[in-house]
């Protein structure tokens, strides 16, 4: 299977149908934009906002209602700090205040009322970011009613938004928190050439997804190469049934998007020139998304395994004047590591998935390693799995093991960038999170030991300076309503924490 | 980047082994200064292992090196038995989504306990070489209960990843629970009904039934009868505690020999499993309610079962060819969540070998046995540790695979800036 939950064979029929039979895996959406802290800084450079350009989606709609919880300052003392910038600082203190990293240094003074955490012998990293998740859209339990990740009714559905499928009660969110996940991108599946928009979420409990939505994070557009779209639609005797059909299907949509953009520009130019009573072009949800990509507001997150197909996609991006932000899965990225680096494209990869479909036959454990070795590269380790997202640190450790076998060991301070800084870059949120630097969001994990050990556990997890997980305290009730009163949690909460 | 042939000499691990090329006939070697985990006694540091003509002839300190024996200095690194890949399709499937490459399940629409999946085993499959180079040395080939098949999946068999013949043991696999409902008319109750009927047919070969009412073919009745008489080992893939309890009852009443595979809720009836002496082969990473059979799933399943005295082995829930690569990680996570380290290692070596009746060949190190062992760069339960020496069936194995060949081809291009 290549399903979003292919590691969860216990999935019920609906998901199995959707993912196994159709061979649908999940990938790529974009999150809508409420221009806040992210946009104010980093995105200014990334986003070409032309005053005359048509509105992609009149913003903000479906806005984030996430609010940073007021919390006392926290001083984490004497930790081994992996900053996410490539540095490792020993015996260092980290001060979190007002939701931000306030100071990094030796023997910092504790502000009045600060929570003090003695991290002697422990390691501290930025919050882990998973750029490829289907939590919420393919939640647990994987029953038919929960199969909300693929709008596999037409090959091009840029009009759908993954956030409108997210079930905030998915128990996978809190399981991921235990693995240090503070931010995740939830994507539609890969049944379609254009799967729809993704959303970036903060991993906080909320009854509504809006309460999790990362303020200011750009949305993505999930696109998919290769076997999945052509299998799903080929089986229905419609385009695409071949790889060339995939490319034709994409190009036809981009041409429409260009026309749509032209119509809006023309309308706005005439209006600006004084024309009155002009009727604006009709809004089209599908083309709004694509136009948002052409304007650089929505980031392309492209599911693509094979090297040759990624090269075609890069040519297509040049043809229509947009940028590919990241290839996802990218099992053959190592074959074109230099090409990807030169085009400033990230590759989000697994450590050890291979052989589940023909286009993953050449996947090797050293994929991320070789991608990373190209100058200017952007290697990311992603999960695409409700199991994998709980231990992206271990996935990365596998790659470090492969590096050791090659005689080219990777240092922890470098490996952590694949899960933090580079991941933040692929989501357009690197101005505010992904590294431990003064002024960044206080998204922080305190590990009980080297995070790249299989025995490592997250002792404390902070999101915007607010403690969201604390293993030193007894287990409370689960955050997910679904888990309340179920056998696992009844037993767990009746015992004291280790 | 180093080519594989001289990878050890160049690697940062700092030891030199002339291990490369194809496996040869039974080997002679002396591993010195290892931390040896025999799995039959406590780990021993500064210990040597002498292999002659492919057999372990001595384990002890300061062994003399006979002439002509290759000497390997382990520098304190761990040596363990070869690792159990779990219940897998390794060698039964090349590519998950390509049906012409997969043979693990029959879709004849009939209950065929005589379906022996080991007849499809291909020791030259890519996955065999990949897993072997990573220190996995044996598996139990596992038939699948596919849609259009039967909840009685058929027969599986243990195989060594040395490329030699399939071992003689046969194990019967049965799939129960919600995910098998489409194989039992929509109800798990019917699963037990069908199993009971099959047992009746097997035990009464002369039972007069019109053909259409029979579940089993003559050969199916014969195979099942053999399992009932001896009795043979039956693996029940089942997760929900209530279903496991039904299995325990059936095992008692029909005098079966059973193993639970999956068992995400097994901890809830740990005492009953311990009392019935039924082992559990579980995936310790299963902690989410993937289905309504898994509502009790927890990372502490393995630890709680061991505490109750249940025999625990590890196999990944997924059976695809790459899943087997996660067994060491799974064991490490079980340890991180309360299982002892020794039990964690045993759960992927000695325990599964004993469950499947091949403990005399796999899963532990003992004098007189064909050498089946691995030397690791570090703690074998750490995912960042790598196999540095793999010996199966007395033969030192190549650490090359299709994966390493791809790696070496493209690492050079990346280094030259021509990977485009």
Q: What layout of secondary structure does this protein have?
A:
The complex is a heterodimer of chains A (498) and B (420).
Chain A: H1 13-21, H2 37-40, H3 43-46, E1 74-82, E2 88-97, E3 100-105, E4 115-118, E5 123-126, E6 128-133, H4 172-178, E7 181-186, E8 194-197, E9 199-202, E10 220-224, H5 227-234, H6 243-272, H7 285-294, E11 299-304, H8 307-320, E12 324-329, H9 337-342, E13 346-349, H10 367-373, E14 379-381, H11 392-405, H12 412-415, H13 421-427, E15 444-447, E16 458-463, E17 466-470, H14 487-494
Parallel strand pairs in A: 1-4, 1-5, 6-7, 10-11, 11-12, 12-13, 13-14
Antiparallel strand pairs in A: 1-2, 2-3, 5-15, 7-9, 8-10, 15-16, 16-17
Chain B: H1 7-10, E1 29-36, E2 44-52, E3 55-60, E4 70-73, E5 78-81, E6 83-88, H2 126-133, E7 136-141, E8 152-160, E9 171-175, H3 188-203, H4 218-229, E10 233-238, H5 241-254, E11 257-262, H6 270-276, E12 280-282, H7 301-307, E13 312-314, H8 327-336, H9 341-346, H10 350-355, E14 373-376, E15 387-392, E16 395-396, H11 402-416
Parallel strand pairs in B: 1-4, 1-5, 6-7, 9-10, 10-11, 11-12, 12-13
Antiparallel strand pairs in B: 1-2, 2-3, 5-14, 7-8, 8-9, 14-15, 15-16
Overall description:
Chain A has helices at residues 13-21, 37-40, 43-46, 172-178, 227-234, 243-272, 285-294, 307-320, 337-342, 367-373, 392-405, 412-415, 421-427, 487-494, and strands at 74-82, 88-97, 100-105, 115-118, 123-126, 128-133, 181-186, 194-197, 199-202, 220-224, 299-304, 324-329, 346-349, 379-381, 444-447, 458-463, 466-470. By secondary structure, chain A is an alpha/beta fold. Chain A has a single domain (13-68, 127-435), classed as Alpha-Beta Barrel (TIM Barrel), CATH 3.20.20. In chain A, the strands form three sheets. In chain A, strands 1, 2, 3, 4, 5, 15, 16 and 17 form an eight-stranded mixed sheet that branches. In chain A, strand 1 (74-82) and strand 2 form a beta hairpin. In chain A, helix 6 (243-272) packs across helix 7 (285-294) and helix 6 packs parallel to helix 8 (307-320). The radius of gyration of chain A is 22 Å and the shape is globular. The two termini of chain A are 37 Å apart. Residues 1-55 of chain A have low confidence and may be disordered. The model of chain B is unreliable at 1-23 (pLDDT under 50). Chain B is built from eleven helices and 16 strands. Helices cover 25% and strands 21% of the residues of chain B. Chain B is globular. In chain B, the strands form two sheets. In chain B, strands 1, 2, 3, 4, 5, 14, 15 and 16 form an eight-stranded mixed sheet that branches. Chain B has an eight-stranded mixed sheet with strand order 6-7-8-9-10-11-12-13. With 420 residues, chain B is α/β, with parallel strands linked by helices. Chains A and B meet through helix 9, helix 11 and helix 14 of A and helix 8 and helix 11 of B.
């Amino acid at each position: 299977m290549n399903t979003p939950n292919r590691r969860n064979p216990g999935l019920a029929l609906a998901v199995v149908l959707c993912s196994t039979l159709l061979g649908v895996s999940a990938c790529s959406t974009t999150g809508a934009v409420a221009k806040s802290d992210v946009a104010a800084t980093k995105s200014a450079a990334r986003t070409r906002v032309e005053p005359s350009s048509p509105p992609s989606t009149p913003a903000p709609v479906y806005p984030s209602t996430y609010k940073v919880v007021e919390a006392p300052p926290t001083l984490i003392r004497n930790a081994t700090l992996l900053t996410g910038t490539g540095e490792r600082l020993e015996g260092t203190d980290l001060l979190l205040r007002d939701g931000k990293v306030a100071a990094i240094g030796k023997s910092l003074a504790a502000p009045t009322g600060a929570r003090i955490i003695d991290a002697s012998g422990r390691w501290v990293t930025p919050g882990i970011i998973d750029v490829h998740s289907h939590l919420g859209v393919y939640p647990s339990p994987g029953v038919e009613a929960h199969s909300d990740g693929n709008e596999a009714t037409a090959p091009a559905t840029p009009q759908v938004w993954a956030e409108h499928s997210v079930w905030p009660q998915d128990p996978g969110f809190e399981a991921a928190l235990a693995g240090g996940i503070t931010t995740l991108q939830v994507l539609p599946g890969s049944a379609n050439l254009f799967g729809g928009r993704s959303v970036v979420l903060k991993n906080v409990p909320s009854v509504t997804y809006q309460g999790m939505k990362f303020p200011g994070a750009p949305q993505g557009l999930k696109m998919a190469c290769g076997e999945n779209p052509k299998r799903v639609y080929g089986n229905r005797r419609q385009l695409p049934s071949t790889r060339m059909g995939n490319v034709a299907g994409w190009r036809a949509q981009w041409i429409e998007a260009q026309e749509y953009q032209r119509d809006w520009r023309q309308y706005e130019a005439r209006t600006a020139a004084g024309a009155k009573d002009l009727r604006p072009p009709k809004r089209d949800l599908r083309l709004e998304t694509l136009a948002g990509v052409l304007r650089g507001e929505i980031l392309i997150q492209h599911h693509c395994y094979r090297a040759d197909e990624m090269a075609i996609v890069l040519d297509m991006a040049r043809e229509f004047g947009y940028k590919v932000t990241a290839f996802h899965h990218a099992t053959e990225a190592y074959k074109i590591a230099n090409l990807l680096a030169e085009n400033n494209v990230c590759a989000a990869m697994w450590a050890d998935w291979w052989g589940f479909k023909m286009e993953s036959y050449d996947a090797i454990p050293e994929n991320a390693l070789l991608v990373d070795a190209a100058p200017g590269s952007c290697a990311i380790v992603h999960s695409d799995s409700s199991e994998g997202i709980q231990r992206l640190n271990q996935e990365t450790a596998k790659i470090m093991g492969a590096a050791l076998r090659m005689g080219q060991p990777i240092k922890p301070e470098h490996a952590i960038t694949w899960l933090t800084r580079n991941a933040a870059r692929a989501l357009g949120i690197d101005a505010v999170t992904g590294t431990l630097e003064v002024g960044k969001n206080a998204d922080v994990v305190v590990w009980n030991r080297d995070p790249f050990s299989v025995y490592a556990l997250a002792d404390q997890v902070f999101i915007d300076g607010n403690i969201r997980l604390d293993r030193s305290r007894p287990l409370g009730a689960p955050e997910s309503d679904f888990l309340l009163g179920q056998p696992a949690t009844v037993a767990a909460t009746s015992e004291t924490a280790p | 980047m180093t080519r594989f042939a001289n990878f050890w000499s160049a690697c940062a691990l700092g030891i030199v082994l002339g291990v490369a090329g194809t496996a040869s006939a039974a080997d002679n070697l002396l591993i010195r200064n290892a931390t040896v985990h025999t799995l039959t006694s406590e780990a021993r540091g500064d210990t040597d292992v002498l292999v002659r003509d492919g057999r372990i002839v001595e384990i002890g300190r300061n062994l003399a090196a006979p002439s002509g024996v290759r000497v390997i200095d382990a520098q304190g690194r761990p040596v363990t038995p070869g690792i159990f890949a779990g219940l897998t399709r390794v060698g039964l499937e090349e590519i998950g989504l390509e049906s012409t490459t997969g043979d693990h399940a029959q879709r004849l629409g009939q209950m065929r306990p005589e379906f022996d999946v080991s007849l499809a085993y291909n020791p030259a499959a890519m996955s065999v070489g990949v897993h072997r180079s990573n220190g996995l040395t044996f598996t139990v080939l596992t038939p699948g209960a596919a849609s259009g098949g039967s909840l009685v999946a058929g027969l599986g068999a243990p195989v060594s990843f040395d490329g030699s013949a399939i071992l003689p043991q046969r194990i019967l696999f049965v799939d129960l629970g919600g995910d098998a409902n489409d194989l039992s008319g929509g109800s798990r109750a019917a699963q037990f009904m069908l199993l009971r009927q099959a047992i009746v047919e097997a035990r009464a070969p002369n039972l007069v039934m019109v053909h259409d009412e029979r579940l089993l073919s003559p050969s199916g009745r014969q195979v099942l009868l053999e399992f009932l008489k001896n009795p043979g080992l039956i693996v029940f893939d089942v997760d929900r505690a209530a279903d496991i309890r039904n299995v325990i009852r059936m095992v008692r009443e029909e005098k079966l020999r059973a193993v639970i595979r999956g068992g995400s809720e097994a901890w809830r009836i740990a005492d009953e499993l311990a009392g019935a002496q039924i082992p559990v082969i579980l995936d310790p990473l299963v902690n989410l309610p993937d289905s309504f059979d898994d509502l009790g799933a927890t990372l502490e399943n393995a630890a709680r079962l061991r505490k109750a005295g249940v025999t625990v082995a590890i196999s990944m829930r997924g059976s695809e060819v790459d899943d087997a690569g996660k067994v060491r990680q799974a064991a490490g996570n079980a340890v991180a969540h309360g299982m002892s380290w020794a039990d964690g290692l045993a759960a992927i070596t000695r325990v599964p070998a004993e469950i499947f009746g091949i403990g005399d060949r796999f899963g532990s190190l003992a004098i007189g046995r064909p050498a089946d062992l691995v030397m690791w760069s570090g703690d074998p339960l750490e995912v960042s540790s790598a196999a540095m020496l793999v010996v199966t069936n007395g033969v030192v194995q190549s650490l090359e695979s299709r994966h390493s060949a791809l790696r070496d081809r493209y690492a050079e291009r990346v280094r030259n800036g021509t990977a485009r």
